[in-house]
Amino acid sequence: MNTQTMTVDEPRVVGGMQKTRPIEEIKSVVIRFVGDSGDGMQLTGNEFSKSVARAGHDFATHPDYPSEIRAPTGTLFGVSGYQIQFSSGQVFTSGDAPDVLVAMNPAALKTNLPDLRHGGMIIANAGAFNKANLQKAGYQSNPLDDGTLTDFRLYTIDISDLTTQALKDSGIAKKEIGRCKNYYALGLMLYLYSRPIEDEEQNIRAKFAKKPEIAEANVIALRAGYAYAESTEMFVSTYHVRAADIKPGRYRSITGNHAAALGFAAASELAKVPLFLGSYPITPATDILQELSALKHFNITTFQAEDEIAGICSAIGAAYGGVLGLTTTSGPGMALKTEAQGLAVMLELPLVITNVQRGGPSTGLPTKVEQSDLLQAVYGRNGECPIPVIASRSPADCFDCAIEAFRIAVKYMTPVIFLSDGGIGNAAEPWRIPDPATLPPLEVKFRTDPEGFQPYARDEHLARAWVRPGTPGMEHRVGGLEKHYLTGNISHDPINHERMVKIRAAKVAGIAKDIPPLQIEGPQGGDLLIVGWGSTYGSIVQAREQAEAAGKSVAHVHLRHLNPLPADLGEILARYKTVLVPELNLGQLSKLLRERYLRDVTLMSKVQGKMFKVSEIYDRILELC
Amino acid sequence: MNQMTEMKQPPRSLCSLPPEGALSGFGRPGATEIKPLTRKDFESDQDVRWCPGCGDYALLAQVQKLLPTLGIPREQFAFISGIGCSSRFPYYMETYGMHSIHGRAPAIASGLKLARPELSVWVVSGDGDSLAIGGNHFIHAMRRNIGLKIILLNNRIYGLTKGQYSPTSEFGKKTKTTPLGSIDRPFSPVSVALGAGATFVARTVDSDHPHLLDTLKRAAEHPGTAFVEVLQNCIVFNDGAYNALADRETRDDARLLLQHGQPMRFGKDGNRGIRMRGFEPEVVTVGEGGVTEADLVVHDESAANGGLAFFLSQFAAPLPVPLGVFRAVEAPVYEQLSTGLADDARAKRGQGTLEKLFNSGDTWTIG
What we know:
The complex is a heterodimer of chains A (about 625) and B (about 375).
Chain A: E1 6-14, E2 17-26, E3 28-36, H1 41-54, E4 58-64, E5 79-87, E6 100-103, H2 106-112, E7 121-125, H3 131-136, E8 153-157, H4 159-166, H5 174-178, H6 181-192, H7 198-207, H8 212-232, E9 238-241, E10 249-255, H9 256-271, E11 275-279, H10 286-293, E12 300-304, H11 308-320, E13 324-329, H12 331-336, H13 338-347, E14 351-357, H14 374-379, E15 389-391, H15 397-412, E16 415-421, H16 422-425, E17 428-432, E18 477-479, H17 494-509, E19 526-533, H18 537-549, E20 554-559, E21 561-563, H19 569-573, E22 576-583, H20 588-597, E23 602-605, H21 614-624
Parallel strand pairs in A: 2-9, 3-6, 6-7, 7-8, 11-12, 11-13, 13-14, 14-16, 15-16, 19-20, 19-22, 22-23
Antiparallel strand pairs in A: 1-2, 3-5, 4-5, 10-17, 15-21
Helix pairs in contact in A: 1-6, 4-8, 6-8, 7-8, 9-10, 9-15, 11-13, 18-21
Chain B: H1 2-5, H2 12-15, H3 56-66, E1 77-81, E2 96-99, H4 105-115, E3 120-126, H5 127-133, H6 135-144, E4 148-154, H7 189-195, E5 200-205, H8 209-221, E6 226-231, H9 243-246, H10 251-254, E7 255-257, E8 265-266, E9 272-277, E10 280-285, H11 307-313, E11 321-328, H12 334-349, H13 354-358, E12 363-366
């Protein structure tokens, strides 16, 4: 916990008795909930983040879970975690190192302890530290009592047993009782951070509305955890984080995938054109398909295709039919969609291809974050096959990017690749809910006039006309073979082919003039410019602010548009002595920048399935300026 | 929110299902007048580039003859194809059309049909396109029973790449990639379609134009996926593959014309027939050895159980080649189910609005 500003003694009223317990005011805190995949840690973390959100905090979360659904209990590889940072200031990342670790078993402690801040707090479920679990985690002795954790503030609580005790008269099965312990842990944490539990009780009753006895058991467990923390006085102090200074408005917590789904729904409404999603389930992109599948009362059709190829192909068919075509996937699925992307380029139909990137290559690290599909997005097709590429920087930004992707797609009659990643797809942050009336309209024109119609004649943006089948007198054929530049009929003429290749390239390159000027954070020129893209945004922003506070001249520009690159980027790069490019890959944007602007950039690479820590970027800044 | 309120009535294509081919209301004013169409109206201005004598010409001619008789405006047709000789088909049709990528036509057509259920969507494909590279999309279209008309031109060879064996080439066949004979076992497109749960499955042959036309008409009228295998001669790389079916001298003995409710009789004199011996078919002659017509299997294309159709699909020499409708049953149609779900959702929740959507779930107010 940073910036402990003050300690106040504040009377608390508990059960009619007045107790005095110091409340420490802190600026921000990073908490990590860890346990077995089946322990409900994602739920606990999620509920905790909702609670701090209601208190007016800014926050960012990072779920970290294994690709196995429910690995054998107690194993190191079955550990699932959820990290949240909340603050009285702005929050851009889920935090470098946890201040508090809530560990539900030995494996969870073992795998996460190395990340815990020195002197940090451990709340351990002592009941799970039995011989079998210790053995599975590879502990020779019990770390809770062998003195190895003296560097930390250790609180051992037998959450398993206390939950069982609290629920012994509930009448629910033993197995179900075992599942309530995450709510017990949540109750502890809500007390510790001075949050009321009434809202959470309502949440529980709503969530388990169909199983009232389970709802009641969870409420009892929640209250028991809260009461335990309150009455045992085991925590020397509780903590209070002041509400953040956040722009007034209505907020909700949103993950990147959810925001993308809302953005796509918004694009359809703004364009007044139905949306069609063809998709095949794949981690970590599946949520978008699930979210949109639940919106059938909008003009949205979802199609769970037989494979990734059918996902994009059905979307192409829908786009030919005159609706907004969308497909969503992750790396390996993107590879399968490659040929169809080429078809979409040839057909010049609007289509959005969303890649929620994960660790690669091949199956790689399905649940981890990586930014290694950038070059695939920009170049990975046969032939001269340009596709515009944009990337979102944060969970909430996925909403804007989803709309931007369709704006480009329909204006330029082109497929667009929208890159998100596992880091922001599943992570949550507060989203200031926009007024739909203030969203910019998305103009779509269907040509209905057959007079002088040529399927591949172009407007000033080099876009051809979109014609809905069913329009009389405009019957025409499109296809993947090279076509005549006006009629669209098959053409093998050499000059025509070169002309078409150049037109397709010029059309995509021309999007650059549509990209708003880049926003530079920090000095407009000088020693160091950090150029980032995608989910590295939060870490870079915080590192830059810290460096600036330490008196360094460092600027940051974050790219949403990656193909084409913004028109003013070259000139901006030239204003700084050093350009640092932090990327979760081996240097893909760096390569694009060097190639495009013939200037060197300093790569900062990380490929561990993890986000950059703020401190990593901060340290690198200090080395460079 | 002004622009939102205009959308209270969703586009018709996604909320209710007009009969296939009915005018969607999106066309120009005047689109509702249906002038009588002729075969000529369906010929595009492109030169047909198949080899002279190719069986594909027969299909093109019969389709162009059929479409004007269906009472569907020309602009409501879309032809989608993949890759291969047969997949050039859309270029020659004066309808909407797409020549796409290898094997993917059913997937593209499925998206089009779901987005625009009122269109009449046809897929033209070949044995390589549908059964090798595109096998997955082929079977899943059948499984869903989506309203596509899928025509598979089966010449049992790869023509466009100049003569390699296909999934329907005979075992032992010598081709450019099987100089010592193919060791791949062929499968029957009709069996595959039936196995995938197709609700309409038929087979016809390029050389019998009336039969081809009749079969296509039946397919056009079928709600749900209609699959037609067209046995088609490749004059360059597999010439004569279906000679026995084309030759007027031999064809009556070589084919079994399936007729719903009729005993399975064939042959020049019409006195040969199919009898069951246990689960095995055998050829018998009516009037010989005490065999009467009552002994013959009676065709039932609408049998709930697909067993009879599958039994027919497995006929191999010396049994005759069954031609006609193997199976035609009614089942829920995918695009209707899809629009039905949307209608139900709207009835229950009202037409969605962004205002409601954005503000759903846990929200909180700052300031």
